[in-house]
Write a structure and sequence with these properties.
608 residues; seven-stranded antiparallel beta sheet; 15 helices; alpha+beta; binds zinc ion
Length: 608
């Protein structure tokens, strides 16, 4: 039962070989990317010093989440909270594990072990684990597909894999394996049908496959995907949604349009991507291509937010993008990062990283306060002054999501394929990776996203022949590139400038991205943004807040509005503020609601 390191490594090597054809790019994991960056380091420090403590306090003291595990272990006492609350504890633990990778901390590790002991004690003799069902007994297990039993199991698996990778400790991973085997003893080709009402288990099973080398988990993930769209779903009678809410209307390979719940959709697409990467299933990737167009071209806000409506936490009709009532759940923006990261690894196309970056700097980052202690669940693009971050939520998926997302952002910076190193995001860091069979170190220094100047330095013993593919962001209209001080104009392929040469230790690349203030218009079919414009600079979408603009309702913009920018180091953690020639002051959207309450909007009326 107990996994060992050696077979794991062999399994991973085998996986990479199988994957070569369909998914050529492997990400460089955040554990190999050390971030030292003027923009991101303060956010990561706030995560370590503030956010983790907030999450632990909420889980242990302010709510009954950890007590549910204690009660389930004893088989007595009541369950408090919502039936999927276990997932928040697992997601927080995943964030704690990632934080330990970045900053070893024996006290935090002891806290993780303490929680894991409680999870293990709450696992039932047959391998089942879910504190709601163990404690409430109000309906039998595995009778309502919308009760998130597999969703919670999936988050536990992600946490278990994360903690095992960081510490080598397998206690939680063993709990996960027992739960996975329990589920596979009930469901599958020889057992019962099941359509998880909230996806997550699929991508988690692929992680379990990767770490154990046990192909049965990959097979089960594929089987679960293929359960969709055949009428097998049964979601109880508490709240009846149409099947598209659950992504259960058509089989996955026939999907053409995004519909239903936004976060569930994102997790499904991630699961489809992960399974396709190993099985070479082009039916899945073709569906993902269609879905990507539908999400990004017809249903995405300028902030990278998705899911317009609060009624279904999800999608409505194409080009309907209300601002005041925009739902744009923080988890959905993180989901956009997770999914677009995977799409890029299939295609090597920078357009996916453009969307990833948009969702990262805007929709997702808005989800947490600058101090790191308060969270948005809903991220509208306009506010009357009554929408504020809270320290927690009854449904706390978003705080726990941010908790696990931030410490792992190093994942999204680099990729490696047989012939190239892919530089996707710009932030100060030092990263190590294998390129053309050699250990390569890349160091980035940059003032991004406030400046477009990036310096990359190569570290290698001797030399290495490989392409360096530098992403030229979709927002960037002009740039200059130098290698060792010499101006170069390389081929640009799918949004990447391709530098193909023999690299030596100390080689230096200077990339200068022009970063003017841009006035952007929405697709004319978006009625809500008719006669309005938004302001963007680099990857950062801006907004106006009433506190800077006392004449808020009268603020107008024009196509030819001129802007001045200034770096204000003491404002909102240090930002580039934009001032329009008519006096209007803009701040980054992610930084709103960190000062006195007031109105906010992204889309500003055009001057008549
Ligand atoms: Zn959420």
């Amino acid at each position: 039962m107990k996994p060992h390191f050696l077979p794991v490594l062999l399994a991973l090597a085998a996986c990479s070989a199988e994957r070569e054809s369909l998914k050529p790019i492997d990400p460089v994991p955040f554990s190999d990317v050390t971030i030292r960056d003027g923009f991101w380091s303060p956010r990561l420090d706030a995560h370590k010093d503030v956010t983790l403590a907030v999450c632990i306090d909420q889980i242990e003291n302010q709510t009954g989440r950890i007590r549910n595990f204690e009660n389930a272990a004893k088989g007595e006492g009541r369950h408090s909270g919502i039936f999927f609350d276990d997932s928040d504890v697992y997601k927080a633990l995943e964030g704690m594990a990632y934080s330990l990778q970045n900053h070893p901390d024996p006290v935090l590790e002891a806290k993780c072990d303490e929680w894991i002991d409680k999870f293990a004690a709450a696992q039932q003799p047959d391998g089942y684990i879910n504190t709601f069902y163990t404690l409430t007994k109000d309906q039998p297990r595995w009778t309502n597909m919308d009760r998130h039993e597999m969703y919670c199991a999936g988050h536990m698996i992600e946490a278990g894999v994360a903690y095992y990778k960081v510490t080598g400790k397998s206690k939680l991973l063993d709990v996960c394996i027992r739960m996975a085997d329990h589920m596979m003893g009930i469901f599958g080709p020889e057992g019962r049908h099941w359509v998880p009402g909230h996806e997550e288990i699929e991508l988690a099973l692929v992680k379990l496959y990767e770490v154990t080398g046990e192909k049965k988990y990959l097979d089960f993930a594929l089987w679960l995907l293929d359960q969709r769209g055949h009428g097998y779903g049964s979601y109880g009678d508490e709240r009846t949604w149409p099947t598209h809410y659950y992504q259960d209307e058509v089989p996955v390979r026939e999907m053409k349009e995004i519909s239903g719940h936004a976060v569930r959709s994102m997790y499904l697409y991630c699961g489809m991507s992960d399974v396709a990467a190993y099985t070479g299933d082009t039916g899945l990737t073709a569906a993902l291509d269609r879905l990507w167009d539908d999400v990004v071209l017809r249903n995405m806000y300028v902030t990278g937010g998705i899911g317009q409506s609060s009624s279904n936490e999800g999608f409505t009709t194409d080009y309907s993008l209300p601002n005041l009532t925009a739902y744009c759940e923080t988890c959905a923006s993180v989901g956009m990062v997770l999914w677009n990261w995977r799409m890029n690894q299939f295609k090597g196309d920078a357009k996916y990283v453009d969307v990833l970056e948009r969702a990262l700097y805007n929709g997702a980052l808005a989800g947490i306060s600058l101090v790191g202690d308060r969270f948005f669940y809903v991220n509208p693009l306009e506010s009357l002054g009554d929408h504020h971050r809270l320290s927690w939520y009854g449904c706390a998926c978003c705080p726990s999501q941010i908790c696990r997302f931030l410490p792992s952002i190093g994942n999204y910076v680099y990729g490696v394929s047989r012939e190239a190193v892919w530089v996707n995001l710009y932030m100060g860091n030092t990263a190590t990776m294998q390129a053309a069979g050699k250990k390569l170190t890349l160091t980035q220094e940059t003032g991004y996203p406030w400046t477009g100047d990036i310096v990359l330095t190569v570290g290698v013993k001797g030399s290495v022949k490989t392409q360096l593919r530098l992403r030229i962001p979709g927002w960037c209209k002009s740039y200059t590139l130098f290698v060792n001080g010499e101006h170069v104009e390389p081929e640009v392929d799918k949004g990447y400038a391709v530098l193909d040469r023999k690299w030596k230790d100390g080689d230096r690349i200077d990339l200068e991205l022009a970063m003017p203030v841009e006035v952007v218009a929405a697709d004319p079919r978006v009625k809500e943004d008719e006669g309005k414009r938004a302001v963007q600079r680099g990857p950062v979408v801006y907004c106006i807040e009433e506190t800077d603009n006392p004449d808020f309702d009268a603020v107008r913009i024009a196509e030819d509005t001129a802007f001045e920018t200034s770096f204000e180091k003491d404002l909102l953690g240090g930002i580039v503020r934009i001032q329009a020639d008519n006096g209007a002051k803009y701040i980054p959207y992610y930084a709103w609601d960190n000062r006195e309450a007031g109105k906010m909007k992204v889309w500003v009326d055009l001057r008549p």
